[in-house]
Every structure is written in C-alpha cells, then in structure tokens.
Amino acid sequence: MKNEELLNIFKKTNALLDGHFLLTSGRHSNQYFQCAKVLQYPKYTTIICNIISEYFKGFEIDIVISPAIGGIVVGQEVARQLNKKFIFAERADKDLILRRGFEIKQGENILVCEDVVTTGGSVFEVMNIVKANGGNVIGVGMIVDRSNGKVNFGVPQVSTLQMEVISYLPEDCPMCKEGTPAVKPGSRKL
Ligand code: ZN
C-alpha cells in the first residue's frame, strides 16, 4: 500500500486532522492524531495491521503482546493475521503487568505491538516484562511512530506511518498569527 493511500484512510476516518489545535501541553499544533478513530473500522484495521504482519511473517513468533488499552486492537489483529497467540499487559496502579492468567515462558519469541509510539514508554515497559519472564523480544510493530523514527527499540521495528509532532508556544504559533482560533480536539464536532 502506498503511503498516500494510507494517509487517505487516516484522513477520511478523521484519525488525522489538519487545523489549529490546542494540545493538552498548552502548545498549539497544525495536526491532531487519534488512532482509535481509524481502528473503529475493522476493514481498515485489517489493511493497516497487514503492513506489520507482512513485515514480521518470516520471523519465529510464539506470542504477540500489546500494552492496554490502545495497543490491544492492533496486537489482536496482527496475531490473527499471523495465527499466533495474543496477550496484553495492563496497568495496575502505575506499572504494566500480566493478569488474567497470561503467561510468557522461558525462551518464547515475542512480538510487541502498539498503536501510537511517541517516546516508546509503554513499549519499553512491555519489553521489560517479556525479558523478566525469560522471553525474547523479536520485534516491535506500531501503527504510528510520532517520534518520526527517533525511538529505537534495539530490535527490528516497523511503523505504518511516521510523523513528527510539530507544536508551537501560543506566542510563536503561525496559525494564531493568521488569526484562526485554536480548538481543543474532541471539544466540538470537527
Ligand atoms: Zn495557535
């Protein structure tokens, strides 16, 4: 799939919005991304996750794991396409842990999947769970790499879309200078 077709899917599902946005950090941006918007549609989830599945299909994999909640849909679909087991780690208090009887055995090969990676914090946490259980992290698949390739997990990694978050202090914001008001994503119909 061409990058342009993929971008089209993100745009027509309103996962990727162009405009003038007020981020929770207080900074302004001309783009806003909400991955869950595209993953509402199973047919697009299938198409997008296939990029990750194709990349890892030649790898020896026992389990696909994701951090909850955002990563679950992605990991489940990649596991389905690769016909592998799928588990997830969830947050209890502040740490991600395995619950529900999910297990990683010594020597098992694990693929980590996530929806959006900015600093990679949740993915690194899941990688640590895998290693603590004696498993091998064989790769990381993600829908969007918002670090624009800067996050390096030290294993083979693939993202379907790479983008850089460009944001401005309100006083330096070019959209503000043009006189358009900044909107808080989700606070009104876009
Ligand atoms: Zn602005």
Topology summary:
Layout: H1 3-12, E1 16-22, E2 28-33, H2 35-38, H3 42-56, E3 63-67, H4 70-82, E4 85-92, E5 95-98, E6 109-117, H5 121-132, E7 136-145, E8 157-162, E9 167-168, H6 174-177
Parallel strand pairs: 3-4, 3-6, 6-7, 7-8
Antiparallel strand pairs: 1-2, 2-9, 4-5
Helix pairs in contact: 3-4
Residues 20, 28, 170, 173, 175-176, 182 line the site of zinc ion.
Structure description:
- This protein is of the alpha/beta class.
- It has one domain: Rossmann fold.
- 31% of the residues lie in helices and 30% in strands.
- It contains six helices and nine strands.
- It has helices at residues 3-12, 35-38, 42-56, 70-82, 121-132, 174-177; strands at residues 16-22, 28-33, 63-67, 85-92, 95-98, 109-117, 136-145, 157-162, 167-168.
- The strands form two sheets. A six-stranded mixed beta sheet has the order 5-4-3-6-7-8, with helices on both faces. The protein has a three-stranded antiparallel beta sheet with strand order 1-2-9.
- Helix 3 crosses helix 4.
- It is globular and about 60 Å long.
- The mean pLDDT is 94.
- It binds zinc ion (ZN).
- The site of zinc ion has 7 residues, from helix 6.
